[in-house]
Amino acid sequence: MRALVYHGPGVKAWEEVAEPKLEDDTDAIVHVDAVTICGTDLHILKGDVPAVTDGRILGHEAVGTITQTGGAVNNVTPGDRVLVSCVSACGHCHYCRQGRYGQCLGGGGWILGHRIDGTQAEYVRVPFADNSTYPIPPGVSDEQVLMLADIIPTSYEVGVLNAQIRPGDTVAVVGAGPIGLAAIMTARLFSPARIIAVDLAASRVAAARDFGADVAVNNSADDPVERINELTDGLGADVAIEAVGVPATFELCTRLIRPGGRVANIGVHGSPATLHLEDLWDKDITITTGLVDTYSTPTLLNLVTTGRIDVGRFITHRFAMDDFADAYDVFADPGTSEALKVVVS
């Protein structure tokens, strides 16, 4: 089969590899019908995730069709259309029993495209298939469900829920890429008074407005701290969500927040960020971090099925499997391509 293979920082190839085989009774083999590229894949290619080694098939999001199952798999059968979650869960360990699947001790967590071969291929082996795949309801498209593999639950859980957004809050989202836009979309479910998006790119400032931001600040021209202070009588935001993963944006979030506020970091950081405790120690600020657990996937799948959220609008570009290299080029250069999410099918 063909797959997108990592060969060290900055090097990838769409090449011929062996098809995956069942290794455990809890495995399933999935024919990949549609797959996408994540910002985390770009971090891997930059060398930010050293656990990913030469020869690894990338990717941790997919929609596909079950072709084989191990003897212990009960919830899905060959022929079923499924969502492949970015997080795998053994279902039995200390953390899985708490619904914290991202911290799985039994061989799960974020493993696809990280510690084992991933989804950017014609076929993928999915461990713990009963807990790590979700049957797709009739009438729901591959593209809609594909967005639930990672970016929507990540933004919802690690951003919106961790930040405990409440009705009437002022919410600042720093970074209006796919993760930030997903945070804006799902924050609206909790009726904040206003959502303020901050980004350097004019196209993403415009996208933030389209996805529900009440105010969008281009911080290449305006000072977001001054703008948010103007809007809040000098108090600052109740919630700041970091959705980029670089030191400057994390530090900006800590300057946007009011005393008693919450900073939720979603971004994947490849270098240290400074925590200015000399400024923050007396402000009663809560800072949260996290890896998505995907416990919210059934809820989000219900919201998509009933039309409460429209996640298909994230998709801006579509490619065939043999054009995977082009898909990466487009996704990695959103300033030129204005790409949000790409789908390869």
Task: Walk me through the structure.
This protein is an alpha/beta fold and 345 residues long. α4 crosses α5. Strands 3, 4, 5, 6, 7, 14 and 15 form a 7-stranded mixed β-sheet that branches. The protein has a 6-stranded parallel β-sheet with strand order 10-9-8-11-12-13, with helices on both faces. A two-stranded antiparallel sheet has the order 1-2. It contains 12 helices and 15 strands. The two termini are 14 Å apart.
Please outline what is shown here.
By secondary structure, the protein is α/β, with parallel strands linked by helices. Helices cover 26% and strands 23% of the residues. The strands form 3 sheets. Strands 3, 4, 5, 6, 7, 14 and 15 form a 7-stranded mixed sheet that branches. It has a 6-stranded parallel sheet with strand order 10-9-8-11-12-13, sandwiched between helices. A two-stranded antiparallel ribbon has the order 1-2.
